[in-house]
């Protein structure tokens, strides 16, 4: 009897701790329907929109904040040649970046503008002002694109350099968020040592920008791993994001090679990031606190 009383008391005392651990859970499995998750837009804390990478159907997926599938639907009239990121404007229009360009050969770069309320689909067809060769020499192959976001009636794109042959610069391009054919404007570039950019997002208050970037290396000299980090820019003026203060936040470390290619803000100080799945690794979404200190130069 005394033993049972002690066990009951211990369970009672541990309830607050168990509750805190549950509430602080930071990672969830994503549905089987998202094996190559590549784009993420957080519409609200419990409404997350996703899409798969190139080669999959032209579909959008809605989950809650625990990764449970709520809805799946086709984007009528669209094709998923190489979808890489997803964003939305303040009117609820989706922008789907069909601009993946691993080999730097594409001349049909596109961003779909999808209006869910009406089902209307438009597109932006564009090119880069500094690309003259398709493809250029390996050391100049910096025309792949995997991250972008909408901000102040414009789309801000961030290039992914070649992992082994590039110079690790991410370029910032700008496009008008309106249907048509145009040339992107090159604004600036940022050096991220040994890392390539795979996703981008701007905070709900517009005061910080996050870039998700990973590197490839061999653990113990023979085990391939792809650690990912989040680079946060703050204290910039207007849309000169790369002129702001830069801080690197730890993303993920694991002994299983996978690619983290999706990122968006939950609130001004935290983000979701997500990885593709593979034979050894189930696709997952993970929450990361950014611990931003605005107004101070950061390392």
Notes on the protein architecture:
With 299 residues, this protein is mainly beta. The chain has a single domain, classed as Tachylectin-2, Chain A (5 Propeller), CATH 2.115.10. 7% of the residues lie in helices and 47% in strands. The chain is built from 1 helix and 23 strands. Strands 6-7-8-9-13 form a 5-stranded mixed beta sheet, with no helix packed on it. The longest helix is centred in the first third of the chain and has 22 residues. It starts with a helix and ends in a 10-residue tail after the last strand. The N terminus is likely disordered.
Write the layout of secondary structure elements.
Blueprint: H1 2-23, E1 27-29, E2 37-44, E3 47-52, E4 59-63, E5 69-74, E6 85-88, E7 94-98, E8 110-115, E9 120-127, E10 144-151, E11 154-160, E12 169-176, E13 180-183, E14 185-191, E15 196-202, E16 208-214, E17 217-219, E18 223-225, E19 228-234, E20 245-252, E21 260-267, E22 270-275, E23 284-289
Parallel strand pairs: 9-13
Antiparallel strand pairs: 1-23, 2-3, 3-4, 4-5, 6-7, 7-8, 8-9, 10-11, 11-12, 12-14, 15-16, 16-19, 17-18, 19-20, 21-22, 22-23
What about the largest sheet? 5 strands, mixed
Strand order across the biggest sheet?
Answer: 6-7-8-9-13
- What is the CATH class? Mainly Beta
Shape: globular
What name does CATH use for the topology?
Tachylectin-2, Chain A
The fraction of residues assigned to DSSP E strands is over 45%
Instruction: Give the total of beta strands.
Output: 23
The structure class reads: mainly beta
Report the span from N to C terminus: 59 Å
The pLDDT mean sits at 89
Number of helices: 1
How many domains make up the 3D coordinates? 1
